Amino acid sequence: MSSxxxxxxxxxxxxxxxxxxxxxxxxxxxxxVSSDVEGFFGSQNDTFQQSEPPxxxxxxxxxxxxxxxxxxxxxxxxxxxxNPSLTYTSNIPYDLGHIGPGFADTQLTTANxxxxxxxxxxxxxxxxxxxISGPPMSLVQPATATGFAYQKVEFAMTYSVGPSGILAGAxxxxxxxxxxxxxxxxxxxxxxxxxxxxxxxIPGTIxxxxxxxxxxxxxxxxxxxxxxxxxxxxxxxxxxxxxATGVGFLQITGEMxxxxxxxxxxxxxxxxxxxxxxxxxxxxxxxxxxRRHRRRKL
Length: 298
Prior knowledge:
- The protein has one domain.
- The chain is built from two helices and 15 strands.
- It has helices at residues 3-20, 273-297; strands at residues 29-43, 48-51, 98-99, 103-104, 110-112, 114-119, 128-132, 137-140, 149-161, 169-170, 176-200, 213-224, 228-234, 240-241, 248-269.
- Strands 1, 2, 4, 5, 8, 9, 11, 12, 13 and 15 form a ten-stranded antiparallel β-sheet that branches. Strands 3-6-7 form a three-stranded antiparallel β-sheet, with no helix packed on it. Strands 10-14 form a two-stranded antiparallel ribbon.
- Helix 1 (3-20) runs antiparallel to helix 2 (273-297).
- Residues 1-27 and 274-298 have low confidence and may be disordered.
């Protein structure tokens, strides 16, 4: 085996270790306890409604948007939502990724979503996340369709946290790419809000030992207020989440929606910048070593 090949294997192994094993050495988020997600769809001025079971239509009709950051009003995922709860029943888990059933009305308006909620194995609050995981979150409304349309997703995920608690730090770096087109006189909107909660408990139990604390809220907001195409990267605000001490549960509750009239919109996650940076460093190092190896041969 050449020195170049040996160096390549060592570098790849080091990168794999940094990705997979190094964070586990300091991990305080120890696992996913439960998760749930539900999708809701309304169109034709909200006279047509669909949702994922077990929550079903109908619900009070919404007016046309644009909407506030929480989106149109739909049934709550559980009693008290979006406040934290350790007693909600998980209906549709999404900690391994969940793709919606696909919604469609009688006028060929279609919508779908894909969500992943999980954690990276680190010790910071921001090492837990919820992202669009595969196919874009989408809503397509034909020009012939009447009225406005929307799709909204509600989700919750609970993580167990070890005795050392979780550290404050940067929020997950998951910018979203929003693309699509709006016909003249229409609009397109995407919004999301993700709340991070700390629920302290008596060690060895799920009995709260104090009040729940909000560790921070991430918000995404995009609005195309008139006709035309759009292609925009949307980052969340703010960028820092608080930490917490002791044994407890970290819970993420959130909602995400697309809406408009008449329009089409697609939302998908953009890879973390750190992934590109590490890949770039590896590529430069391998290229430089390869050049030195070829020069020695000459």
